[in-house]
């Protein structure tokens, strides 16, 4: 199949001094389906997201994108950023800029179109996150939840094949959570979506492809059964 993509993590470890913080024997993620990453606070969920998306290099092992017959090292390849996006905790940008201006400038790095087509792409993602009415507002005037949705708009630019979303719904109201969930469900047929989630209840109405449970420095790939979801929820509640 042309344009087939998959992410591979092979014999991966991340070390800090003499300690192994995270270990992944072998994992393969195809470019479709919604995956939930869960684990207790400090288990290594964010570290996994940064490793798997190529933002942090492993101490040993390989993390690469297989695109058709080619193998691309994520950490060393800038071009992989077109295919793989990471939504992290903090807003990155000049808060004095207006919403549309900021997003347009970011879009030039991720979208091949120019002119009207580029403007249309910016409008498209602003509509997805329901910020079109605030496109001429300065970012510094946005609420935390609105800035979070703006950060979501950034990673949706150009329709990437892999989306790593680290706690995407933090500070977002339930109405907009449902709106964004609906869009993610829609694109998950040809986009791999990996989300860290502290509130497992938000996952129960999402058609999940797999669960990734981070515990004691290792990552387990589980089937998204009701029993597995319940066990994960109970484990997280015990940590609160």
UniProtKB/TrEMBL annotation:
It is a peripheral membrane protein. Residues 7-240 form the ABC transporter domain. Keywords: ATP-binding, Cell membrane, Membrane, Nucleotide-binding, Translocase, Transport. SUPFAM superfamilies: P-loop containing nucleoside triphosphate hydrolases. Its main location: membrane. GO terms for cellular component: ATP-binding cassette (ABC) transporter complex. Gene3D superfamilies: P-loop containing nucleotide triphosphate hydrolases. The keyword Cell division does not apply. One of its GO terms (molecular function) is ATPase-coupled transmembrane transporter activity. InterPro entries: ABC_transporter-like_ATP-bd, ABC_transporter-like_CS, ECF_ABC_transporter_ATP-bd, P-loop_NTPase. It is found in: Cell membrane. This is ATP-binding cassette domain-containing protein. The lineage of its organism: Bacteria, Pseudomonadati, Spirochaetota, Spirochaetia, Spirochaetales.
